[in-house]
Design a protein that fits this description.
The chain is of the alpha/beta class. It is built from ten helices and 26 strands. Helix 1 runs parallel beside helix 8. The structure holds flavin-adenine dinucleotide. The site of flavin-adenine dinucleotide has 38 residues, from helix 1, helix 8 and strand 22.
């Protein structure tokens, strides 16, 4: 592999920013061009549904780098400009302002966009989404005391926004089509915890809700109409029904795309000079025994670091132990691992209470019932999750009774 002279990174979100930083950390002194279609420096998103939406922080809290650090990285940053095509034969990225960005290596970090609702009335001005800084600032304007917020989708974004809106004094209703909250991501006990948490803060939760349409109401408000005829009045609707990876640029350039841009464990695409990282990738996770697409802060950072090293010819490999967290009111929820299904968990602490962990063991058990931990979910128990991380990384078999017994120190296991 020849040493590159110039690297182009498309997408100035978290993965793009980390790729740029890693290139410099690895000693790359050539040209790094970071082109992103948002008007901001490289940034991350978790505060957008938390401190920024709450009004406790301004969007600068999302910046990945302080101004001095960004200057030291000596990037050619091109904000508010969209990459429109990749000419792989000529090794050039084309942009919507007519620029031609030549590369020896390309990193695609185009992330994902919100999935839009397709019901009648979904284009009314009160129907909002939350992905970008602009989205968060516009939504927060609408969430003052007494505002009526209707959240469509009881997943992470919807629930975090619901918690933040309650803090701002809005009344909140959450509609979820499934029979429990966050059903795709967490076991039933955690869904039940989330339902209790939100109910205790005055959020009305409707499970199994089938949204049919929105109708305009007086003063810019709207009414959501459910399949059973129920009508819910709201000033603002926040839709949080998932995301779609931004794969079009890669697909049109002829790169392999499946559930995202297909990459290997170094972030390399089907073109050896083109890498990809973050929400947009379909990646092999040996530890999980399958390919996955991860929509998380941890993945955006860690995969981008490996991809940038590989772009310079390094041999780092990426085998994620997926980690995800969410903050809602005073509750901290953390998950490690990503089972395809949730078998019966081993509870440490009371799952009907406010602080507990659930452990999920692998199928192959020793004679004493000991098995390696596959995943853990901790509610307000970050130390237990940290200890479990070490046990998972070491693949150490543990006896279920020891995990369940709060008197047994996980650190000592
Ligand atoms: C409100 C919110 C809260 C979140 N909270 C958490 C949390 O608590 N915990 C957690 O683990 N994860 C959280 N996440 C998820 C996490 O932020 C994402 O997984 C992460 O941002 C993915 O990073 P990325 O760089 O892959 O994509 P992005 O951050 O989406 O960055 C991609 C960038 O590329 C740009 N782009 C796309 N196409 C082009 C193009 N053709 N030309 C130029 N630029 C382009 C996009 O506009 C964007 O700026 C949250 C996400 C959101 C939206």
């Amino acid at each position: 592999m020849t040493t590159p002279q110039s690297v182009v990174i498309v997408g100035a979100g978290q993965a793009g920013g980390w790729a740029a930083k890693t290139l410099r950390a690895e000693g790359f002194a050539g040209r790094i061009t970071l082109v992103g279609d948002e008007p901001h420096p490289p940034h991350e998103r978790p505060p957008l549904s938390k401190a920024v939406l709450a009004g406790a922080s301004e969007p600068a809290v999302c910046d990945l780098f302080k101004a001095e650090t960004l200057a030291e990285l000596a990037l050619d940053c091109i904000p508010a400009e969209r990459a429109t095509a990749i000419d792989r034969a000529a090794r050039v990225v084309l942009t919507d302002r007519g620029r031609r960005l030549a590369y020896d290596r390309l990193v695609i970090a185009t992330g994902s966009r919100v999935r839009r609702l397709a019901v009648p009335g979904a284009d009314l001005p009160g129907v909002r989404y939350l992905r970008t800084i602009a989205d968060a600032l516009a939504l927060r304007e609408r969430l003052g005391a007494g505002a009526r917020l209707l959240v469509v989708g009881g997943g992470w974004i919807g629930l975090e926004a619901a918690a933040t809106a309650r803090k701002r004094g809005a009344t909140v209703t959450v509609l979820e089509a499934a029979d429990r909250l966050c059903a795709r991501a967490v076991p039933a006990e955690v869904s039940a915890f989330l339902a209790r948490l939100h109910a205790s803060h005055g959020v009305a939760i409707r499970l199994g809700a089938k949204l049919e349409r929105f109708e305009p109401a007086a003063g810019g408000a709207l009414q959501a109409v459910l399949a059973d005829g129920t009508r819910i009045a709201a000033d603002t609707v926040l839709v949080g029904v998932g995301i779609v990876p931004n794969v079009e640029l890669a697909r049109e350039a002829g790169l392999e795309v499946a559930n995202g841009i297909v990459v290997d464990d170094q972030g390399r695409t089907s073109d050896p000079d083109v890498f990809a990282a973050g929400d947009v990738t379909d990646l092999p996770a040996a530890r999980l025994g399958r390919r996955v697409r991860l929509e998380s802060w941890q993945n955006a950072q860690d995969q981008a670091i490996v991809a940038a090293k590989a772009a310079l010819g390094g041999d780092a490999r990426y085998d994620p132990l997926p980690w995800f967290w969410s903050d809602q009111y005073d509750a901290n929820i953390q998950m490690l691992g990503m089972p395809e299904r949730w078998p019966a968990g081993i509870a440490r602490g009371d799952p009907a209470g406010t602080s507990f962990s659930l452990f999920y063991l692998r199928g192959d058990r020793g004679p004493d019932g000991a098995a390696a931990i596959e995943a853990v979910v901790s509610i307000n128990a970050p130390r237990e999750l940290r200890a479990a991380r070490r046990l998972i990384e070491q693949g150490r078999p543990v006896i279920p009774q020891a995990l369940a017994d709060p008197q047994t120190s996980l650190q000592k296991l």
